[in-house]
Amino acid sequence: MSLATFKVTAESENPTKTVVRAGNFEMIIDEPKNLNGTDQGPNPVEYVLGALAGCLNVVGHVVAREMGFELNGISFELEGDLDPAKFMGKATENRAGYQEIRAKVKADSNATEEQLRIWLAAVEARCPVSDNLSRSTPVKIVLN
Amino acid sequence: MSLATFKVTAESENPTKTVVRAGNFEMIIDEPKNLNGTDQGPNPVEYVLGALAGCLNVVGHVVAREMGFELNGISFELEGDLDPAKFMGKATENRAGYQEIRAKVKADSNATEEQLRIWLAAVEARCPVSDNLSRSTPVKIVLN
Description:
Two copies of one chain form a homodimer. Chain A is 31% helix and 32% strand.
């Protein structure tokens, strides 16, 4: 199968607000006031959690269809912890990003708990966003 | 410095559309029609690219301030390639997620090219989203 390439463009509107264009859609990213932002959208690391939820939903439905059980919906609670010291330029041994990401997944389904356990393991392994977070991904950032 | 925890909740609205709540904000995630979606928002892997752009903007401005040059704005072009085979359940050796993410960063600035090179290296190292993508992050997904 050939590779699919996904693209977005983005412009800073102020030091914390970014407007991202993805096809016909726009994402507004900002920081809250307590992180010196203008509070016009979720912040970048909240977008990471959102992307993971969206991915688990899509793959969750693909896998449920394969396994042959009904899936009427999924609800998610996601969180992650990070130490702001590194991006703020303070001395720290900690990494810049989330040290851990946790997701709780509730499936509205006629599947047994055992089926749901098998389902969740497959979903996690096949979800592109989960893969990009849990395993190292080459990120090449260059000046334009 | 203590850890900051970020949280979102999300609900599937259909097999491809997810509505994410982050504080007072909402993200609509969907797949395009050619990926069997209802095309009501960017897709999960486009959100990953958007999150990276938003993060590079915030950290870019923090670092420029530290380095003492003017930064009037940043524009970004981001892309990544993935093989859809794995999430679609086809036989493949390829990983599920992006095999590589590329970002082009254009700074509107009075800095020299040498300053911008130093700036970009610091931004990349200190950006939480770049860190979570380029280095392995524990992702714990459980049934609720």
